[in-house]
């Protein structure tokens, strides 16, 4: 294993804002993020497939009254965002190293108020369909952990994957869909907060247009 990667794993092992297998809270955090991690009752926003966690950190700077959790399976990537959040003393940030297909083990029904999915692997081949993060088996998870009416955002450079998601989300019952194939030239541009992830910057530089959609979990918020 490369030394730098090993170093980042060591950083994660001692970072207070990283929850991963073998560390405290990994087995007990479900349904208890407010009490055990954030010590507040603020809404929880997830960034799935977060990589270095640009949205997790960027939104946490902008919205101190929300809690942000980046989720990714790759520890060396989340270490980057974790270290930035620690340096900036962002107490409203956490990173969870886990496979997204097991989200139910970490979040109780309705525990999450908003989800961002940023530049996930498009899994283009037919036989990879069930691995797409907008396949119904993942939407079933999101619908469960999101509160009724909770927002779901997707950004991707990949047009076929985006078109696939435009079909699966409404078919699964997500409502109030708005979208654009050209985010930066769209009236929706403000919605993405001007944050560019690593992959976004890379694909944009290669000439790909950035697709964005937003929709809501079915149901309405209890008042
Ligand atoms: C193309 S990268 C995008 C990273 C970042 N969002 C960005 O835009 O720069 C896709 C990320 O998804 C993560 N990933 C893919 N499948 C996953 C899964 N099932 N559970 C957790 N993370 C996953 C990978 O580890 C990788 O960091």
N-to-C order of helices and strands? HEHEHEHEEHEHEHE
In this entry the ligands are: S-adenosylmethionine
Please give the radius of gyration in angstroms: 17 Å
Could you give the distance between the termini? 51 Å
The 3D shape can be described as: globular
Order of strands across the main sheet? 1-4-3-2-5-6-8-7
Under CATH, the homologous superfamily reads Vaccinia Virus protein VP39
According to CATH, what is the class? Alpha Beta
Tally of alpha and pi helices: 7
Which fold name corresponds to the CATH topology?
Rossmann fold
Strand content: 15-25%
Q: If you average the pLDDT, what whole number results?
A: 96
Query: How many domains make up the 3D coordinates?
Result: 1
CATH architecture descriptor text: 3-Layer(aba) Sandwich
What is the SS-derived class? alpha/beta
Count of beta strands: 8
Largest sheet: 8 strands, mixed
Q: Regions with pLDDT < 50 over 5+ consecutive residues?
A: none
**Proportion of residues in helical segments:** 25-40%
